[in-house]
């Protein structure tokens, strides 16, 4: 699948090299694994799941490239290597992010059509991916994150802060993670089965997204550059709106551990599933990163 993906961005081209640098480099691939894991659990079409996994990684890679730019988080390191704009320049970084964002739906339309996936299913998946990525999802979450970074939080009502923080995480991180879980469900051949389980899977996806972000907030405070792969401690220094800055490290850890229990209970309540191995491994890997 890596070779097929690389064919969409052939060298030699500075732009394509920048794209491949971020898309095909080292990474945890949590979102693609969620696609594959939910598809496996629901005995879905794994060929479809692979294409969905590639598309969501394109969206994620684009978001990281733009997130690291000087106008946003201004970070020099990502996944243990220099960020895209540090290697290829800001212009190529912006354009490579733009290319990945627009390639994801094009890739899905071409690849799923080639697999003879039902057209209505393709349309729903693409629409949901664009909604999760855009101003109703990830982009709005990033905008709110930056807006509140510029505020003096001591002057903002605590209930408003808690509500805003939850909304930021739901949009910025949770929307794409939720889509990944739903996409795995959508590889099941029966539309009625998909409709029956969609709300439950969406709820689980939102919880996984929140868990992932809380763990990320905790790691920003507790990890080294080598462990984290990006500059640690930036959120705390900038007084960014995070779970650790709002609740403290101890309470943020407690919240994360409660979420893990809730997610596992929710997974057990899903009908028509057979194998949660991939998803369980993802949740366990997040649990192991939490302070004792």
Can you walk me through this structure?
A hairpin with a 2-residue loop joins strand 1 and strand 2. This protein has a two-stranded antiparallel sheet with strand order 1-2. The protein starts with a helix and ends with a helix. With 292 residues, the chain is an all-alpha fold. 41% of the residues are buried. It contains 15 helices and two strands. The chain has a single domain, classed as Farnesyl Diphosphate Synthase (Orthogonal Bundle), CATH 1.10.600.10. Helix 4 packs antiparallel against helix 9 and helix 10 runs antiparallel to helix 14.
Explain briefly what this protein structure is.
The chain is mostly helical. The chain is 73% helix and 1% strand.
Which tags fit this structure?
single chain; 292 residues; mainly alpha; Farnesyl Diphosphate Synthase; two-stranded antiparallel ribbon
Instruction: List the strand order in the largest sheet.
Output: 1-2
How many angstroms does the end-to-end distance come to?
Answer: 38 Å
Broad structural category: mainly alpha
Query: How many strands in all?
Result: 2
Order of helices and strands: HHHHEEHHHHHHHHHHH
Arithmetic mean pLDDT: 92
CATH class: Mainly Alpha
Count of the domains: 1
Strand content: under 5%
Global Rg: 19 Å
Helices and strands in order:
Blueprint: H1 2-7, H2 14-23, H3 30-41, H4 46-67, E1 77-78, E2 81-82, H5 84-88, H6 90-114, H7 119-133, H8 138-149, H9 158-185, H10 191-222, H11 225-228, H12 234-237, H13 243-247, H14 249-268, H15 277-288
């Amino acid at each position: 699948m890596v070779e097929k993906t690389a064919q969409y961005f052939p060298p030699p081209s500075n732009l394509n090299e920048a794209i491949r640098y971020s898309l095909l480099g080292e990474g945890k691939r949590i979102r693609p694994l969620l696609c594959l894991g939910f598809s496996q659990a629901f005995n879905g079409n794994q060929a479809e799941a692979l294409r969905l996994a590639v598309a969501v990684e394109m969206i994620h890679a684009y978001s990281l490239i733009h997130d690291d730019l000087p106008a946003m988080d201004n970070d020099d390191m990502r996944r243990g290597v220099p960020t895209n704009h540090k290697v290829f320049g800001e212009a190529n970084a912006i354009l490579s992010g733009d290319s990945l964002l627009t390639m994801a739906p094009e890739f899905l339309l071409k690849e799923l059509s080639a697999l003879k996936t039902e057209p209505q299913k393709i349309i729903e998946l693409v629409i949901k991916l664009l909604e999760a990525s855009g101003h109703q999802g990830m982009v709005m979450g990033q905008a709110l994150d930056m807006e509140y970074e510029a505020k003096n939080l001591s002057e903002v009502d605590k209930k408003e802060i808690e509500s805003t923080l939850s909304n930021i995480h739901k949009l910025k991180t949770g929307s794409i993670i939720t889509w990944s879980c739903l996409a795995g469900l959508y590889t099941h051949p029966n539309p009625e089965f998909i409709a029956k389980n969609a709300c439950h899977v969406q709820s689980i996806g939102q919880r996984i997204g929140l868990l992932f972000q809380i763990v990320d907030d905790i790691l920003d405070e507790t990890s080294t550059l080598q462990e984290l792969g990006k500059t640690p401690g930036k959120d705390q220094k900038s007084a960014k709106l995070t779970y650790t800055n709002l609740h403290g490290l101890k309470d943020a850890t407690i919240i994360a551990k409660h979420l893990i229990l809730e997610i596992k209970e929710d997974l057990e309540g899903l009908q028509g599933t057979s194998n949660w191995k991939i998803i369980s491994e993802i949740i366990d890997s997040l649990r192991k990163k939490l302070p004792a």
